[in-house]
């Protein structure tokens, strides 16, 4: 079974194109270092729920959308090694992302797959 890192981000709508550029660059780096798959999705049908929802989870504002993304690896061990390489990669150094989205409202975590159909 694979291992997956998942991410949820509130993204100002005015920054969508800048985020896409950053995501393309990040995806290339992740894949070069061994990730099996890298996916970024813009919210299309993500209503603001009364109790819980994707927008509520990241405190999305009226002028923001939600980005849901994930990276797939062969295993947790591969993920740990790949992420270490990605974080050290000079192409992703710097604070470029800080002007695109608020990292303090990003939700992320690692997940062990138990079913793949």
TrEMBL record:
Pfam families per the UniProt record, alphabetical: DUF1428
InterPro entries assigned: Dimeric_a/b-barrel (IPR011008), DUF1428 (IPR009874)
Annotated protein name in UniProt: RNA signal recognition particle 4.5S RNA
Organism this protein belongs to: Sinorhizobium fredii (strain NBRC 101917 / NGR234)
């Amino acid at each position: 079974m694979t291992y997956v890192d998942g991410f949820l981000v509130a993204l100002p709508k005015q920054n969508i194109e800048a985020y896409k550029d950053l995501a393309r660059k990040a995806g290339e780096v992740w894949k070069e270092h061994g990730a099996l798959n890298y996916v970024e999705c813009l919210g299309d049908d993500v209503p603001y729920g009364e109790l819980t929802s994707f927008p509520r989870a990241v405190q999305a504002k009226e002028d923001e959308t939600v980005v849901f993304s994930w990276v797939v690896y062969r295993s947790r061990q591969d993920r740990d090694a790949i992420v270490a390489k990605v974080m050290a990669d000079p192409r992703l150094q710097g604070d470029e992302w800080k002007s695109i989205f608020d990292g303090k409202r990003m939700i992320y975590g690692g997940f062990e797959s138990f079913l793949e159909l």
